[in-house]
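INTERNAL AUDIT FORM
Audit reference: QA-55
Scope: verify that the stored structure record matches its stored sequence.
Auditor: D.O.
Record contents follow.
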Amino acid sequence: MDLVSGYKGVVGLVFGNENSASNEDSYVERLLDRISNGVLAEDRRTAITELQSVVAENQAAQLAFGAMGFPVLMGILKEERNDVEMVRGALETLVSALTPIGHVKGLKSEVQPALMNTDLLSREAESISLLLSLLSEEDFYIRYYTLQILTALLHNSTNRLQEAILTIPRGITRLMDMLMDREVIRNEALLLLTYLTREAEEIQKIVVFEGAFEKIFSIIKEEGGSDGGVVVQDCLELLNNLLRNNASNQILLRETMGFEPLISMLKLRGSSYRFTQQKTINLLSALETIDLLMRGGLETDAGKDANRLTNTTVLIQKKVLDHLLMLGVESQWAPVAVRCAALRCIGDLIAGNSRNRDALSSKVLGEQPQVEPALNSILRIIIRSSSMQEFIAADYVFKSFCEQKNIDGQTMLASTLIPQPHSINNAPLEDDVNMSFGSMLLRGLTLSENDGDLEPCCRAASVLTHILKDNIQCKERVLQIELEAPSPTLGAPEPLMHHMVKYLAILSSIRNKDSSYAASKNLYVEPIIQKLLISWLAQCPNAVKCFLDSRFHLTYLLELVSNPSSTVFASGLAAVLLGICVLYNKSTDSGKDAFGIVDAISQKVGLTSYFLKLEEMQKSHLFSSTEQARTRKPLTRSSAASLADIEEDVDENDSSDQKNESHPILVSVFDSQFVDFIKQLEADIRESMVEVYSQPKSQVAVVPAELEQRGGENDRDYSKRLKSFVEKQCFEIQNLLARNATLAEDLAKTGGSGYSRPDHQPGGGADRIHVEKLRIDLQEANQRLEILKTEKAKVESEASTYQNLAGKMESDLKSLSDAYNSLEQANFQLEKEMKILKNGGNTPSLDIEAIKAEAREESEAELNDLLVCLGQEQSKVEKLSSRLKELGEDVDQLLEGIGDDGGLPEDDEEDED
């Protein structure tokens, strides 16, 4: 092996000079020499036993073995297969060399011999092939130790081992055969396959092809289903690895084994319903499998939606909803983790599927006479559960039920919202079994009036948010709900919306008095109620009118935005509410119309500070993070125990910003849909505010009384009074223009720089108007400059075209000149021949003058054509030159170089007699 020499250097580096490591090195070296060169078989076996013992207990011996021991032991495995004792000892020694020594706790920076040995052994593909071949041996311990070695290699060199196994013929097949072996070997092979199939699609395909589904469910049944031990957990983890984001494997399972073996694991057996920790983990793994089937394949798969729809349809047909309701709703003795996982599965099952939603809405739970709809039971969990995680999971069910514009479902739930007498609202909590869904929800919204605890109210508000989302009819219907006061002497009934705003005011007063409370429950209670109001007011002018009917509401929002003690989310969502009151405001009442709201924001908060609150919220972790709120990590051996032990309450003492923004309830409130909705709203709010100030208020057609001449008033006094009135109106107009200019500057600076607050602003309105005029003039000048640049580019393009054309004409002229020269030469040759013929006297004389005249005529004709072409091109060049001079271009520089390469030859012809 090439790495051995370098490995010896590492030994010296870690353990110092040769003297400090000589004992371990020399002892390991002597044992290896006895193993490789020994004559007596018993002495060799004793040496390998001693080697295994020292390697298992000493890190220095592990490192020394890695430097020189692998070739010796691999030689035994390759050449001495018949000696079972030696092969066993070699394999056991390899296991010890690859296993970290637990009781030795060194620094993380120290070299770990077990890891280095793993890396060294996994580099040789021949070694992996040799180990896989040992799985076919009959000896139990040989197969067992071989699986342990492969598992150790897989832990530290996953990718390398996966690639090596794929290149070895029947490598996966041999591992799959181990699942039918004795129990201990089967469990080791199962654990190995779970590691091997993580994120290895090719290996997953081969494992499924080798009948993995049948073998997995056979082992689960043999082990006792969900009541089984850790082997069931390993089987389900392997099953989940094969199904995760793999549509083809999901289809194969659905069409061969079916989902019945999986669903049967969710059935609770026996009368005691005892839940051990292992049973909890097994149920969580089975519920994860259900969740994977409902998610389908990868997002990029063409048939992902069809596969997901088919999976959910088959699951509903197999009565999986009944088992999920039993685990998540009816079995309140079940662990919180199981109930939460079952509720999330119910939400995934009904999301985007109208049939499954109808199936859930028609389900009733309990036994006669105490039966109630399943949705009522889930609502009770939301309001009364002491577990934060259970509230989030149950709330997700209602979100899935109402999302994607399930108008019929939302209307059905909203139709039950009927106010009850105050005496019924004060009844014990146990009496809500006989209440309708709407009565229970309204009771949850008003339950806080007695003890001041707003937790039930915010949870009920979250459900009401889902019912009202994107449904104008439900919003209008709930607007009509009025809640009576505890006693007639305390006032008349008031709308439900006003109750919600009153709770927000209570929260603000509590936060100002007790900061520790604000760091705990108020962290998410206030945003949930604000989210309800945002969903309610959006796209509903009547809801905006109802909200503004109380002047206190506008004042409260302005104070909440400007209050420095408010959280980023409280002030940001309050700013969104103010923007909605502008965006969807149809009122014409003074002070309540859109202009009045924007004017109040400008006076009390300032538009720069207002938009700064929105930007601060959008720059928070919850808004800027691209991570999906419901991303679930795979359930493995290392993470299963922590997931199974979900605490009933969370640590609320940590008030750091990062901790607050990562609060599970806040993460569920600010889901991706709500974040996108807020971002779109902010853009619309900016545009709406600019439009409000860019257009004057509607003109009043009534003539003011000051414009009419009073009785007994002469014309002179009437003229003076009119002049004074006009001057007053001009002064007010100047003030309005100055304010509008300031607002325009604020909007422009806020939209451009975000957090940059101007240190200096113009002092007077006239100065601002002048600045605005200069800015408009500058924009117009920039536009004219851009037009001139475009025209210049166009002319330059034309000049380049004509320049190319001139070059082409020059080339044509040169070719004509060459032709003329050839004619002259031919003419000269003919004349020479004629002279020779004359001198000979044997040939009759030719008409030389006629020939010369004919040649001259042809030459003159071609020359005339050439001169005409030159004249045309000269006129084009002159016209183009004048245009370029107008644009300021140097014509001589552009024409430089043209005609230097060649031209017309000088006519040096001489007439000869």
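Auditor finding: record pair retrieved intact. The mean pLDDT is 80.
Action required: none
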